[in-house]
Specification:
By secondary structure, the chain is an alpha+beta fold. The protein is about 30% helix and about 25% strand. Helix 8 packs antiparallel against helix 10. The two termini are about 45 Å apart. The structure holds flavin mononucleotide. The site of flavin mononucleotide (FMN) has 8 residues, from strand 11.
Length: about 375
């Protein structure tokens, strides 16, 4: 490591420099905004003296060449609009953890990314660090976007490890970039939380009998109702079966259709069965219902619940018994089954995804 302390750095729009007492006013203006500190571990500054006290402390710390704490100043006006610096420096592994913020007025303009990229460059090229990381609260995905744009990779999420200034304990989402990736100019498009969730979902085939709270079932169903539909018809409907007797009857019916007799439970012990039906005359029936089931499975996974698509709904609701079941709910012959999404608490380990098959993608460029 080659410690250099807080050296002045320049980007197209910014000067990254040591903070001085003269910057206290502008720093206070932005640091006293509760929107800025909402997902921070420190509270909004209550008065200018608090800001001045901190600035005084930092100006003293600048005497140490191991102290890295930059004011983010606009080149045009020299106004300080935020801070960026190393919060934790682990000497033996040469790993630094960065912290940063800017005033609300400057969000969404790429300013933080500009500052972060410059700091990363300085810390790798001049200070010779091994790895640089940064954390954000999951409730503040915009901060994660800044990390992604600075070519940092998602490292992991440490559950309930961060106490926010408002007293809430939340997860700590960590991104990092290594020296090797920086110098080899390896550019990654990191998995964001949606892509990660899509890749993490798995079909579950062993469930605990414990019932899921209704509010969660309703949330999952709501996600299903937001699926795309041909012509925006929204013609798919969902029947949520939580009644054990009715669920068992459907299971028997489904098993019979599948050719397993009545001893096998094709719902694998799941206590909740969401039946998705499509209107027979809908332009894109089946496609619409399939998307609904996709959403239901994904939403279930987001709650840590297991789910699986169970087939044979079409045949099920063509039987006399199936039709009677629907009729008892006021659903007439206009509908046909698309599939079932079974949901429940996972009994055992969630399986890993099987490797994706090759040669399934064609680019026309
Ligand atoms: C149209 C469709 C029908 C399915 N039917 C059943 C079924 O009847 N029983 C079952 O156990 N799994 C069923 N599955 C789940 C698939 O077997 C599962 O998605 C596949 O093995 C891949 O596993 P994964 O979902 O964990 O990626 C079905 C999936 C789809 C998309």
């Amino acid at each position: 490591m080659n410690h250099l302390g807080t050296q002045t750095l320049e980007t197209p729009r910014l000067i990254l420099r040591k903070i001085t007492l003269q910057d206290s006013e502008s720093l206070y203006k932005y640091a006293s905004n509760k929107n800025v500190t909402k997902y921070m571990t420190w509270s909004a500054h209550k008065d200018i003296n608090e800001t001045k006290g901190l600035v005084t402390k930092w100006t003293q710390q600048y005497e140490e060449n191991t102290f890295y704490h930059w004011a983010i100043a606009l080149k045009e006006t020299n106004e300080v609009i935020g801070l960026i610096g190393i919060a934790i420096l682990t000497d033996n592994t040469l790993r630094a953890e960065l912290g940063y913020w800017i005033g609300e007025e400057f969000w969404g303009q790429g300013i933080m990314t500009e500052a972060l990229n410059k700091i990363i460059q300085f810390l790798f090229e001049k200070v010779n660090l091994n790895v640089i990381c940064a954390n954000h609260a999951p409730e503040n995905p915009a901060s994660g976007k800044v990390m992604q744009k600075a070519n940092m990779l998602y490292e992991g999420t440490i559950k309930k490890s961060c106490l926010l200034s408002n007293g809430t304990i939340t997860d700590r989402v960590t991104y990092s970039i290594t020296k090797e990736d920086y110098f080899n100019n390896n550019h990654y498009v990191s998995d964001n939380c949606i892509i990660k969730a899509l890749k993490d979902r798995r079909s579950i085939r062993k469930f605990k009998s414990k019932m899921i709270p209704k509010e969660i079932i309703e949330k999952i169903i709501e996600a299903g109702l937001y699926a795309a539909s041909g012509h925006g018809e929204q013609s798919s409907i969902i029947v949520a079966v939580t009644n054990k007797e009715k669920r068992d009857k459907l299971s028997k019916l489904n098993s019979k259709i599948g050719g397993w007799g009545e001893t096998f439970d094709p719902f694998y012990g799941a206590p909740v069965v969401l039946i998705v039906l499509d209107k027979k005359d809908a332009h894109t029936k089946l496609y619409d219902g399939s998307l609904v089931i996709g959403n239901l499975m994904q939403a279930s996974d987001s709650f840590g619940l297991g789910s699986c698509w169970i087939h044979r709904a079409k045949e099920e609701f063509e039987t006399k018994e199936g039709k009677e079941f629907l009729k008892s709910l006021g659903i007439n012959d206009e509908y046909e089954g698309a599939g079932h999404c079974i949901i429940g608490y996972i009994d055992g380990e969630k399986p890993k995804a099987s490797p994706r098959k090759n040669d399934r993608v064609f680019f026309v460029e």
